[in-house]
Every structure is written in structure tokens, then in C-alpha cells.
Amino acid sequence: MNSNRFPESFLWGGATSACQIEGAYNLDNRGLSIADMVKFVPKEQRKGDRPPNVTRKEIQEMLNNEGNYYFPKRYGIDFYHRYKEDIKLFAEMGFNVFRLSISWSRIFPNGDDEKPNEKGLRFYDSVFDECKKYNIKPLVTLSHYDTPLNLALKYNGWSNRKLIYFFIKYAKTVFERYKDKVDLWLTFNEINVIAKNPYIGGGVFLEDSDNPLELSYQAGHHQFIASALATKIAHEINPKNKVGCMLARTVIYPETNNPLDIIKAQRANQMNLFFTDVQARGEYPGYILRYFKENNVYIKKEIGDDEILKLHPVDFISISYYKSVTESSNSNAERLSDSLFTGVKNPYLETTDWGWQIDPIGLRWALNDLYYRYRMPIFIVENGLGAYDRLEYDNKIHDDYRIDYLKKHIIQMREAIKDGVNLMGYTTWGPIDLVSDSTSEMSKRYGFIYVDKDDYGNGSLKRLKKDSFIWYKKVIESNGENLA
């Protein structure tokens, strides 16, 4: 193999989620999801880049006074009506894979419905048919931060074991429906977020418990079981199905070679990798058992749970990677702005407008660490730069900064492959501008395709190609060789 090229089977594309692009939140019998209740808060009123951990009381107040708020994820970028136009643009770039998610509440509007919504099923039939038209393989996430709202309000989301049953019913429905159209699946997007933001990760209201930490990890256990059972069913329905887990991978460095810093960073990395340890190795590791004991966390398991996890591990590991984090035992160290994954400032790295430190070499480190920890294929399903893009007078968008970011990460992917890592593919986040998950902004843009819409929902929704569109097309055409 040419050392500057990727394997011939390598998958190149982009990644999105239903709750950030589809819109049409109230059409064709779709029910509300937890994402539909995240209101827009202007940047000057927010603290950092952390998504809100919404409370039950706030949900009820917003439902009673919906006219007082703007909920950007309800509208997305109208992919629901423009999917043919958007997929055609992806095909023009040369995508051979497109990561998207199915909106659970579009298939089962309340989550616990007896029968699925046929109109929702038909929509994804049309989307997958459009992908097939251009020889684009769908990579489908079952749950991407959009648990049906009814399941949150009625059952307190994934803290309730009943959600395993509802999820399996949903998963089986779509596995059977699309068995001839989809064979690459992910169960839960960034499953480790359940421990960081239980509302976003699983529709869990922490105020329902006097032990919020335990409630979060109990919800995570239920998702582990649901994921393992979904993997089992996927293999039974179509032996060609490959099912992956998905981790928000944030590499954690020690600030110094002080052993206290090193241990703190190691523990933080372990807490990040706990989720893939369970899904890939099929068991709870010793370090998490110690953590649970020291923090009064007692996970309720049913007979057979451990066997389910052991018998049905995932087929591959997928990750999002945007940044690295630095940890320190020094309580006075300068810390970055608040986000789900934050730490002290690393002086060797540049920082984005949203306080995320850019670390391409950290991606190579992460890929090596994951592959030699699990010996499973790795798929990078999110990586990208959220930035302010300027629309010029001639409708051009010159985003050299995005090209530079992606180029440096692709170079490190190439190095990881030379290191022996089995890397399946790369889907950038997101190939078209979409509503930010963490801040619900449109101005935090990631795409190769500009969407004319602002933070308050104003705009024509017209799609425009950025400079990075042409660049990524050349990258794919050359299978990663031409990065100029």
C-alpha cells in the first residue's frame, strides 16, 4: 500500500444526528423528544459550552409556555424535506458512507407505543433509498440524544429498567424494516455522556434521586444491557450486520510529571474508557468497582445481566474526537471554560472560539490506545471544527482554518494506520451546518456546506459550498493521499 493512501476499503463521509438536522418535529405523527425541549440561550447568557441538564420542573414550565421560547432542534436545517438535495451534495463530495440517526420518537412517538408509526418508517426508507442511489452506505445510530420525551416524564428515562424493553422493541422494528438497506449500526451516541449529563444522555432527571451519581450509572447499566441485546438481535436478523458502540473519547494528559498528576490523568482516562471496557470486553473492570464502592454507588443488576454483557459485545468501536484535556493535582491551575470534558489549559495547544483545545496528535495516541486495548476495528465517526464562518459578498465561504484542522487530523490517522491500527473509516462532524448539540447555535458551524440560517431561526436555508467542500472532495478522490 502507498504509505500516503488509506486502505482501499476505507469509508469516507460525514456524520449528523436526526435531532440536529431533520426538523419537522410535529409532522407525520412524530412525538416530542428530550432534544425538542432544549431552549436556545444566547452565548452571553451561558456559562461555557456545557449543554443544560434540564429538570422536570423546567420541562413542565416550558410545555406550559412554549410560545415564550425558541427550541432550535425542533427545526434543525429541514433535512426532512431537503434530504435529496443534501445527499446529492454528499455524493458530489464522494461520500461512500453517511452517518445519520433515526429519530426514536418518529418511529414510536411516545416510546412505549404498541405499534410503530408507519409514516416515520417510510421516511427512513426514502432516505436509505436515496443513499443507495449514490452508492453511499448508511451508518445508523439508534439513539442520538433524543430519547422520547414521554419516556423521560413517565419513567424518568433510562434510570428505569423498562426502557430496555422499549428500546429493544424499537431496535428490532428498524433492524427488520431496513435489513436489506443498512448493515452498519451504532446503539447509543457517546454513551459515556450519561454520566456527565443524564438528561441529554438518557432523559434522566437527577432531582428524582437523593444519590444522583448512582442514578446516572444505573441508567448507564440499563443502556449497556439494551445495547448488548440489540447487538444480539441485529446479528440474528441479518448475520451481515455489524454493531458498534460509540464513545466520546477525550484523551487526558497529566499537566506535569508529578506522580499525582499522572495518577489523576490515568484515573480520568479509565473513567472515560469504562464504557468501552463494558461494551467491548463484556464486564465491569476492577477500577470502576472501587470507584463505586468509594462513592456509595450500588448498581442493581438482574440475574443474567453479566452473562448478557459477556455474550454480546460490540463488533467495532466508534469514537468522537475533538480535543484532548489536561488534568492537574494543582487546584490553582488555570482551567478552561466549562464543558462536558474540561481541564487545565495546555500551553502547547491552540484553542477554538468555544474553548476546545486542538490536538491532532492526540488522535493518533487515542487510536493506538483503543486498538491495542481492545484489538477491535476502530471507526472515527465524529471529528470536526466548530467555527464562525463568514459569508462573503459573493456568497463564498473561505474556511481555510477548517481545512487545516481536518488535514492535521487525517495525517495523524494515516500515522496510526502505519502503527498497525485497524481503522475502518472517518465521518467528519458535520458535513453540513447543523444545530450545535452543546449550545443549540447555528453560528457554531462545522460543515463543508453552509446553511443560510442564524441562531434565531432566520434565513432562507439555502445550501452553499464552502472552500472545504472542494478540498474534502479531493481528499476522498485520492483516498487520503491529496491533502493539499
Automatic annotation (TrEMBL):
Keyword check for Mitochondrion: no
One GO biological process term is: carbohydrate catabolic process
Q: Which GO terms describe its cellular component?
A: cytosol
GO molecular function per UniProt = beta-glucosidase activity
- Superkingdom per UniProt: Bacteria
Task: Recite the UniProt keywords alphabetically.
Answer: Glycosidase, Hydrolase
Active site positions = E382 (nucleophile)
- InterPro entries annotated for this entry? GH, Glyco_hydro_1, Glyco_hydro_1_AS
Give the record's family classification.
Answer: Belongs to the glycosyl hydrolase 1 family.
State the protein's name: 6-phospho-beta-glucosidase
